[in-house]
Amino acid sequence: MTDNTFPAATILGYPRIGPRRELKKALENFWSGASTAAELEQTCQDLRHRSYAHLAELGLDAHASAVPASFSYYDQVLDTAVTLGAVPVRFADLFDGEGKLGLDAYFTLARGDADRAPLEMTKWFDTNYHYLVPELGPETVFRIANEWIVENFTAARQAGFTTRPVLVGPVSFLLLSKAADDAGAGFEPLSRLADVLPVYAEVLRALAAAGVEWVQLEEPALVADQDLSEGELAEAVRLAYTALATELQVPQRPRLLVTSSYGSLDGLLPALAASGVDALHLDLVNGAVPAAAELEALGSTVLVAGLVDGENIWKADLAAAADKLGRLEQSVSRLAVATSTSLFHVPHDAEQEQQLDPVLRSWLAFADQKVGEVRTLARAIGKPEAIAAEVAAAAAVLETRRQSPGVQQSAVRARTGGLAPADFTRGDFESRQIAQQDVLRLPALPTTTIGSFPQTRDIRLARARALKGELGAGAYEQLMKDEIKRVIELQEELGLDVLVHGEPERNDMVQYFAENLDGFDVTVHGWVQSYGSRCTRPSILWGDVSRPAPITVPWTRYAQSLTQKPVKGMLTGPVTILAWSFVRDDQPLQETANQVALALRDEISDLQEAGTKIIQVDEPALRELLPLRRRDHVDYLRWSVDSFRLATSGVAAATQIHTHLCYSEFGEIIDAIDALDADVTSIEAARSRMEVVKDLEQYGFARGVGPGIYDIHSPRIPSAGELEELLAAAVAHVPVRQLWVNPDCGLKTRAYPETKASLENLVQAARRVRASLVDSLAG
Question: What is the DSSP code (8-state) at residue 608?
Fold first, then answer.
């Protein structure tokens, strides 16, 4: 049965960027000074209320807390940190005279300023979303420093919507935080749980006073292995929800929905079942239906069943979901249906993609379609026969998809089926290193960039006009060549040692390849948020993958013709292409990865034949897809590493293979990074102040490595002195012969003035450190 105070159908979150990226445009206008804070706030309120109205039109009850207030100006973890006043000491001046944090302070934490680096950024579980990492210490003072959560609820209610406010739950908030630099050895943020709970309680009281009926507390960190025992985590859950759900009772607080997206709670389900929360969400897409005894322990707690996939875009198998629903009904007394995760991981509406083949479009469910699937399944609670027609229609779609041409290609299958161990190996690294030194003759601490250069408005406009047929192929090619020439000349002027062509012809590092490989399709309006105002359009990988023709070779060959310095060939690796696409779910990821790897292997072979001496195959998502449970790591790392090696093992010893990884906890997968067998690996390190180099030293990493010293995810221009300090920290832990000097990531999202100034400082820092090394040797 359904609970009479909780809606039978709900979602955990909705895309917050707007169907036409309204949030992105509003943020960037505000940051550029083209609009005021008041104008930004009004635009965002209008966007929130339009979303609530739209969800009501789709059938969610806008008057019964079925619509989550999941909007964020930038990031939901940052929202919670600002609400709690959890600000590092270096940002203490951001509090106003009343101890509050406003919009300017919020964005300073997110983006930094001229003198201070922003909060560190890392991946959100196994997704392509990035969150900002709170920095806590023993002395961090928790207090309500921002009341947007209350103000936004009140404004929505005045507009006719009773929403469900959303906060990251206390245990996950602390587990997702890091120790501040001044925290002292051995400090763990979770040790502050007893200190932060009174502030959570104060927030809940304020929400109850404003009329909030339900609050959503998100505890996704409980589905991932932590550096704690299950017993310690269970005790943290008990402590947290005894304080918030048992000691603090309705009506002093709203009713509490605790969510657990991205995996299974495993042994923590009993602790939450006994915690006194009013509703508990389980992700039953990424996790299995628990045993009957565990479910029965929920008693009167509402089980919110996450039966609709919030992360991928394929229509649901309603028969399988209805079967799970039926099993749940046998063990729980109160039941509702929801998505497995927030829907901010998927685009708004598949019906907007009219350019797609209608058959392919019929397989898709974006956010709006998933709301419909949730509502359909909710109708089956207690009466499964009520959705018989919908179940049959969904089964027919799945069968059409299975039988569609291109989903399986015999030639592709034969190639992956014939792979042998020799296809995954290159020969020993030491011999390759000698051969590459003889060919490249690079200085100590060679400088380079990660690949892309700023994409100007003119470049984007030319690409759009070419796509519409308004610009002929010859004219478009010449414009791209002109830009490549400018980028090569700029790098020569800056004094970089290894150059790139800048990638002006690429709209996105995955979509560009998707447009040139069979088995993919792309969207027009399928934007999802990566972080802040940064959005991406994941491609749709629906069939067997192959490469009909060379993709990058002509551009790389042209760039190399303009300079005597080596120009890197630039490709996106197989795991990242999978991670940043919506990937078919009808076969193992390993098979799909090998198909993509073989297509890239063909491209790498052609680049080498064209004279390219350095080829970079980026795998920034390698850590991203790492399973949340350690028991699943070995299998994933085996096939993901193998797919990279399959792509890169067909080249000569003298061809140098680079890879790039960013915004991940590298220490966790350093064995796998080494196993990639790349000759040089560039990695994010600037925001974390070179934390990774200690892991490299401890491991004894012997390959070339470029720990990034320029954080490109912030608009600030780091000084040469700051960059020199970071590089000196790297030199202190990694042998100089291995080190490269580079930014954290590609420069596509930056503007040319800041890019040029930052790269000038980067080259200057490298030269200073080189000179200091020469002086020390001479001395």
Answer: H
For 75, 158, 538, 585, 639, the CA distances from 629, given in Å and listed in that order, are 25, 44, 25, 20, 17
pTM for this prediction: 0.92
HSE-CB at 250 with a 13 A cutoff on CA atoms is 12
DSSP at 310: S
Dihedral (CA of 507, 511, 513, 516) sign: negative
Only one residue has tokens 């490299």, namely: 696
* Alpha-carbon Rg for the chain in angstroms: 26
630 residue type, one letter: R
Does 49 qualify as catalytic in the annotation? Answer: no
Most confident of 65-79, 651-665, 703-717: 65-79
Q: Over the stretch 317-350, which tens digit does the pLDDT of each residue have?
A: 999 999 999 999 999 999 999 999 999 999 999 9
Q: What burial class does residue 556 get, using C-beta atoms within 10 Å of its C-beta: 0-12 exposed, 13-18 middle, 19+ buried? A: buried
Find the angle CA(403)-CA(406)-CA(409) to the nearest 5 degrees.
100
SS3 state of residue 546: strand
Judged by DSSP in three states, 487 sits in helix
Angle between helices 148-158 and 193-209 (to 10 degrees): 20
Cis amide bond preceding 251, omega within 30 = yes
Which of the residues 281, 348, 525, 713 is marked catalytic?
713
In this structure, how many other beta carbons lie within 10 angstroms of the beta carbon of residue 164?
24
Distances (CA, A) of 334 to 64, 298, 339, 378: 16, 9, 17, 12
Closest to 502 (Cα-Cα) out of 541, 459, 565, 547: 459
Q: What's the half-sphere exposure (Cβ side, CA atoms, 13 Å) at 547?
A: 20
